[in-house]
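User: I'm preparing a small set of examples for a lab meeting where we compare how different chains pack in three dimensions. I only have the primary sequence for this one, and I'd like the structure in token form so I can line it up with the others. Please keep the answer compact; I'll paste it straight into my notes.
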Amino acid sequence: MANSKRNAFTLIELIGVLVIMAIIALIVTPLVMNIIRKARISADRRSIDAYGRSIELAIAGYLLDTGKFPTEVSQLTIEYSGNKVECSTTQINTDSSVYLAGCTVTGRNVENYT
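Assistant: Understood. Below is the structure token output for the 114-residue chain.
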């Protein structure tokens, strides 16, 4: 009588492992996608913040060069090398701060940013 050793997995065991892996993937995928979405939004907001700071630096440079306060953004030479930021509203405040609203970063809308 031969001693039968079990050296392989049965088909049922392999299917069970695949089902468990599929369930884990179904649970983890939305969590990972949400983390990626939040990271993208955060990065876009940081890009807008950096763009606003570069406008504030351009205001300071304009003030130093001309001795006058700029009234429009078109008067400024803005040095910004980040992602492409476009805002429907760019306003220069009298305290040299900048108000940005309706901004997009590389074509993506950034919700609730002012």
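A couple of notes for your slides: The chain has one domain: 12-109. The mean pLDDT is 88.

User: Perfect, thanks.
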